[in-house]
């Protein structure tokens, strides 16, 4: 299947194609029925529906198709924090396959967090989302910079058959930008050259750099067993979440904490749980 066919299939799955009226045949023998307008889906519902479809593609090794879905999603949503969560997940999805796109996403995400009215106001859970999204964006940027450092160290080693005594040397020799040897808080990444040899001068042939685990696009734990609407008036939902080490799932609501995770949002299609540095999207397993 060609790449173009794959992308068209994704757009159809995501509901992003419309058809011209000329392609719809009218049956003149059938009386017209009154128009029925379906209620518009909320941003939360649209987010969880499209995110679940992206997860299906990732499980089938269709990361490119999933990326298209998430890119279309964050650009089409109309309210915070759903725009920012979709943008974050698009960035995480592209860190390995397209680091430049992920880097731009994280830059846009930080600017939105700094300027979007939702994050400057006193809306419910705005402060929680601000901290968690900002922490996630910073960690994502740091992961990209660490990979750039690794790449630069590889090029340096190819030229000099050793590793530099400091990261600053990489920047001085223009193998990398000075910004990239610092983390998002302005601190130099921890780097230790090892494997010293004295032939005739000291040289380093291995190194250790601080690890920063990649953020998965979706997680298997905590696991969302399902959601249930509480009543018709409030339109609020409860989530049934299973955490590691517990046999039975817990019924939780927004604003509750479960095993260190803050339950920030629950809707029909899923839940958002946060820590200061992570935003995890939970959707029911199929």
Explain this structure:
With 286 residues, the chain is of the alpha+beta class. Helices cover 41% and strands 18% of the residues. It contains eight helices and nine strands. It has helices spanning 3-13, 43-59, 63-76, 82-94, 99-115, 117-120, 126-160, 167-172, and strands spanning 191-198, 202-209, 223-229, 237-242, 250-252, 257-258, 261-267, 270-275, 278-282. The strands form three sheets. A four-stranded antiparallel sheet has the order 6-7-8-9. Helix 4 (82-94) runs parallel beside helix 7 and helix 5 packs antiparallel against helix 7.
Strand content: 15-25%
- Give a quick account of the main beta sheet: strands, pairing sense, barrel closure: 4 strands, antiparallel
- Report how far the terminal alpha carbons are from each other: 26 Å
Parts with pLDDT < 50 across at least 5 consecutive residues: 10-14, 16-38
What value does the average pLDDT take?
Answer: 87
**Structural class of the secondary structure composition?**
alpha+beta
Helix content: 40-55%
User: Element order, helices and strands?
Assistant: HHHHHHHHEEEEEEEEE
What's the shape? Answer: elongated
State the strand order across the main sheet: 6-7-8-9
Number of strands: 9
Number of helices: 8
Keywords:
8 helices, three-stranded antiparallel beta sheet, 286 residues, alpha+beta
